[in-house]
Amino acid sequence: MCRLVSILVRSRNDEKFIGRTLSSILSQECSLPFQVVCCDDGSSDGTKKIIESFPEVKLLPRPEGEYRPGQRLNYMIRNCQGEIVVFNNADAIPLDDCWLKELVSPLLDGSADAVYANQLPRPDADFLVRKDSLRAFGDGKTAAKWRFFFSLASSAVRRKDLLENPFNESIRYSEDVEWAHRRPVRIVYAASARVEHSHNYTLKELKKRFYGEGFADGEIFGDKPSLIRELFSAGAETLRDFSFLLSHPKGLAELPLAPVRRLIQRWSHWKGVRDYVRTGKTS
């Protein structure tokens, strides 16, 4: 029987969300006792002060050196005590008081090695962001057809597994996918464990993110660069965008930008894969 759950929250300049996230976490109705452990990455806003206003929360000191997601995750795992570790981003706000119970249930009944939550778009999310969220999460049927999908933003794993198989500390993007993909892992999607989590990325931010994910895909999956494949993917996704926006008239203003966004995403992803293949080094 699990005696304790450790909920790990990473933050950086999240003052807009961190208070709501921690309040929701601390109000969870769960039969298991849990601790909340935070680590702030040098926020320049009021994030750290908000965390400190919650006496129930354990705030770890920021490790020295450059931020690498795998390093930070392994550090937090070493400094918690729970048999089950729940990862929850500072800006992923649990939407009800049964989120934790629903998230850890597949681990407790032995049906999963890793569980990830349902991420719903924020009220201010762009329509295309809403559409992408529905495809990635929703009822889970679409993502189940993809090559591989897992999201650490709100998820649960046994601590023993994390200590025996730590996160890759050199990779900059997709550290969750790399961890879950490197060996057989039973992954379960907990659709009833709901958090509010989405980003209205600018074109510059999309370029950076998809380049990083492409670089990581080269390392994780051994992908080879194919501009034709990427352009086909951009075209197919744009057609889905048009269909979604036409069925949501309030979002029609986003229609002219849809093909631009998809081209930037796939072009940047192609460049990331290409650069990994050329260098064979971590980003």
Descriptive report:
With 283 residues, the chain is an alpha/beta fold. It folds into two domains: 5-196, Spore Coat Polysaccharide Biosynthesis Protein SpsA, Chain A (Alpha-Beta Complex); 203-279, no CATH class. Helices cover 42% and strands 17% of the residues. The protein has helices spanning 18-26, 47-52, 69-78, 99-108, 127-136, 159-164, 175-181, 203-221, 227-246, 258-279; strands at residues 5-11, 34-40, 57-60, 84-88, 93-94, 114-120, 154-158, 187-196. An eight-stranded mixed sheet has the order 3-2-1-4-7-6-8-5. It starts with a strand and ends with a helix. The model has no long low-confidence stretch (mean pLDDT 96).
Please report the distance between the alpha carbons of the first and last residues.
41 Å
Number of strands: 8
Assign the structural class, choosing from mainly alpha, mainly beta, alpha/beta, alpha+beta, or little secondary structure.
alpha/beta
Average pLDDT number: 96
Q: N-to-C SSE series?
A: EHEHEHEEHEHEHHEHHH
Helix content, binned percent: 40-55%
How large is the radius of gyration? Answer: 19 Å
**Number of domains in the coordinates?**
2
